[in-house]
Amino acid sequence: CFVSGSRSSKTFKPKKNIPEGSHQYELLKHAEATLGSGNLRQAVMLPEGEDLNEWIAVNTVDFFNQINMLYGTITEFCTEASCPVMSAGPRYEYHWADGTNIKKPIKCSAPKYIDYLMTWVQDQLDDETLFPSKIGVPFPKNFMSVAKTILKRLFRVYAHIYHQHFDSVMRLQEEAHLNTSFKHFIFFVQEFNLIDRRELAPLQELIEKLGSKDR
């Protein structure tokens, strides 16, 4: 576990497990097997005969777990003092609002923002009406818009890590892990058009570089 200090243990969320033996678990295993082939473009494609919502749900949970773990490795470098605002480089700053508890966007430090964000995502993933884990329970009509919001917000954690903490990632020799995870994430959201191009602007150069290597 990558927890260090009292504050980081708050941000480091417990892993969200997909119930073993469930159809979603089989889908996750399929995703892992295709990922192992090394072809990420192919790995993100909807498996034949599968439900798109279910595929997006399984992968969203997986990305939450990955980002959670990656951020967990650098929490000691991401502090109120080092990151007083949640930013992705000098041109992009994020303010937090979840529409229920915090309706008006508030300016806060990166660790605080990421704590709000990960707690909010976890609440969505734990909500059986949004992310049903039982076979035959339909996804709600607003599922796709909720999934898009989750992925848009998870992208911001990648953006913050790349812009503000990449030197720490390199010192920890985590950059290959970070790059693979991010590339998988980007190919997935591009495949199903899940994040508006405007939102991806803070890492546009990196996205183009990762994509060109795979053409």
From TrEMBL:
Keywords: Kinase, Metal-binding, Transferase, Zinc
Superkingdom in the source lineage: Eukaryota
Record-linked InterPro entries: MOB_kinase_act_fam, MOB_kinase_act_sf
Single GO MF descriptor: kinase activity
Coiled coil segments of this chain: none
Annotated binding of Zn(2+), by residue: C78, C83, H160, H165
Pfam family, one: Mob1_phocein
Name of this protein: MOB1A kinase
